[in-house]
Amino acid sequence: MPVAVPPAEPAKKNNTLWIVIAIAAAAGGWYYYNQQHPTPTATNPPTQPAPQQPGGTPPQPATPAQPGGPGPGGPNAALVQQQQWSSQEVPSNGYVQVQNGKWTNGSQVNMTSATLECDQYDANQTVLAQNQTNLTMNNPPLTPGGYATFGNFNAGQIVQNVNSVNCGIVAVVPAQ
């Protein structure tokens, strides 16, 4: 009488190795991307373009929030007033992203770097958060009348009740 042999169970597949490989590849891709696309450091962002005050001008960045820090411009306040900054500030994954940044040196002095401050405002134009970013150039100095452009970078996390964001240069370092 023939003996019935149960069919062999198919071998169980172990996907653990493939999961480990996928995680390692994703981490490597993230690291490579961040090495190729560094962003200036900052610590707080906006959700809408800067609001217009009566007369059509956006609010100016406020005095830095850091305790003991100098006011806008510090020892180079006159040079700071001669700098122009333009950009679009948009929300991006919970952060204020500064896009199409352009710094124009309107002074008669060469500049090596500047500090950009991005302030977040509520509907009453009260400052909710301030984030500063050091702007450096590939080929300093920035000559009088010259300009430098900057790729997209984050300028801090968006805070609750933010209605608008405005960025401006609050300090500069003249070339020696």
Model description:
- There is one protein chain.
- The chain has 176 residues and is α+β, with helices and mostly antiparallel strands.
- The protein has a domain at 74-174: Immunoglobulin-like, CATH 2.60.40.
- The protein is built from two helices and seven strands; from the N terminus they run H-H-E-E-E-E-E-E-E.
- It has helices at residues 16-36, 77-81; strands at 83-92, 95-105, 111-121, 127-136, 147-150, 153-157, 164-174.
- The strands form two sheets. Strands 1, 2, 5 and 6 form a four-stranded antiparallel beta sheet that branches. Strands 4-3-7 form a three-stranded antiparallel beta sheet.
- A hairpin with a 5-residue loop joins strand 3 and strand 4.
- Tell me how many strands there are: 7
Oligomer kind: single chain
N- to C-terminal separation? 102 Å
What is the name of the CATH class of the domain at 74-174? Mainly Beta
The name CATH uses for the topology of the domain at 74-174 is Immunoglobulin-like
Helical fraction equals 10-25%
What would the average pLDDT be, to the nearest integer?
A: 76
The helix/strand order is HHEEEEEEE
CATH architecture of the domain at 74-174: Sandwich
